[in-house]
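Progress report, Aim 2. The chain analyzed during this reporting quarter is listed below.
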Amino acid sequence: MNMPHLISRHEQAGARGSGTAETVIAMGLLAMIVLGMVQYAADVHGEQAAQAAASIALATAREQNGSAGAGQAAAAAELAQLTTALQNPDISVARSATEVTVTISGSVTTLLGLTEHVTVSTSGPVDRFEPNTGAGS
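Predicted structure tokens for the chain:
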């Protein structure tokens, strides 16, 4: 029959404080994971706000009587209403006779004071009224 090995007090002395060190390392890793998740959420939030503003700007500028200025104003209003997560937004709306392109860029401040740059671009055709002139109506 095997008897369990009993650890003497001298053998235990070398392991003193190891539980505290392990806890400190585990808590540090856990804090880094939580901060990383919060930072990722802030980045995604800034990008989604830029995408929503770009969609509003595109819809406004591509209307039949719309303009690039109206699209830019709509995007600025949408960003002001949605969030302050996107800092220093730069809104660019270009409208030609056939297409509208909207680009919104800005920065998201990280938890450690660094900045993440976000750029969203979308485009679509200009809405045009074409009267029904075909036969068969």
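Strands lie at 87-95, 99-109, 115-125. The chain has one domain: 16-125. These observations will guide the mutagenesis work planned for the next reporting period.
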